[in-house]
Amino acid sequence: MSDNLLSLAGWYILPNLVTGWVQSAFYAVWIRAGDPKPQPGSRAFVQHRRRINILVIVAYLLYTIYEADFQLRTAGNLYQDLGVGLDVNERGINSRFRRLTLLHHPDKVSPGSDRTTAESYYVHLKFCRDILIDPTKRFAYDRLGPDIFFWRPQPTSIPDFLTIGLRNLFFYYSGTAAVLTLLGFLGYIKQAAFWRFLALAALGVFEVHCLTNPTFPRLLMQMANPIFAIIPTHPQFLPWQLISLLRKLILTAFIAFSQIGPLITSPEAAAAAASNQNDEVSQQQLQRISALGQALENEANMLMGLEMTPFAGDEAAMREMRGRMKRFLVDNTVRSNVEVRNAMGEAIARRRQGVPHGAVGAR
């Protein structure tokens, strides 16, 4: 349970943190020096962050699955330690143990070798042999894993192992369901609540089936292990190893989907949020420009008033000043307007040539 809580904490801290680093590195590498970078809150920035976040979450999901598989392969199992297959019988176990005894018995180690290490290894091999040739303990180990070695008092029959195993399953799944419900209530996992609990219930039923089934489940023997066999040096998994991997897979997959879901299903919402933010920024800029224009207009009126102060009270002078300003504005407009200037040029050219007005258009 503590590993699951640590994994949950990592899921809600690392993806967002790594996304920020990757986006900064992406802009530093992809955008040339001197070119403008998308600003936080812009449409391009939001789209880039959404896509990078999806890739980071998927990569972290794959890494989590690989890490769980790697830990199981590194830890190994009693079958791997003896070097026998999962379907080995008692005769095959004893035969393999005799061959290993000839190689690793403490009395047969070469002089100068560490006898303590040899004794410890041989004791472990004998322990593996004793567990696997005992039908009750082998049944319990295949389905419940090495935890059975630490149960006190030590069970002696299959019903005892099943009772403790089912009790532990109840505590695990009820605790996991409570944690997922709490996270959903707090708003951390909002997507696919029904499917999340359905998958958890299906895994619980499958685990009970593996625990109570007298033989290996068909799913393990005919589907999972043949797939693992494709990977070079990948060992076959026992039911308890497969269950451990499925637990990790389902938990992390639903956390990943709960984070990817809003990013995939509502890109328009993210774009709309960025657009609204841009509209707010544009509106603020327009307001600042309007305020600046009003201030310039007030300043121009004040300067105009100062310039007209000497003519205050003289109506004739004011009329003459207005007339001159009107002519100046008209002349300035004529000089600056290309079409008016061209029309005046054509009219002057016709006068000089003696062409009647409108003759050019008639032709």
UniProtKB/TrEMBL annotation:
<feature type="transmembrane region" description="Helical">
    <location>
        <begin position="170"/>
        <end position="189"/>
    </location>
</feature>
<feature type="domain" description="J">
    <location>
        <begin position="77"/>
        <end position="145"/>
    </location>
</feature>
<feature type="transmembrane region" description="Helical">
    <location>
        <begin position="12"/>
        <end position="31"/>
    </location>
</feature>
<feature type="transmembrane region" description="Helical">
    <location>
        <begin position="52"/>
        <end position="68"/>
    </location>
</feature>
<dbReference type="Pfam" id="PF00226">
    <property type="entry name" value="DnaJ"/>
</dbReference>
<dbReference type="InterPro" id="IPR036869">
    <property type="entry name" value="J_dom_sf"/>
</dbReference>
<dbReference type="InterPro" id="IPR001623">
    <property type="entry name" value="DnaJ_domain"/>
</dbReference>
<keyword id="KW-1133">Transmembrane helix</keyword>
<protein>
    <recommendedName>
        <fullName>J domain-containing protein</fullName>
    </recommendedName>
</protein>
<keyword id="KW-0812">Transmembrane</keyword>
<keyword id="KW-0472">Membrane</keyword>
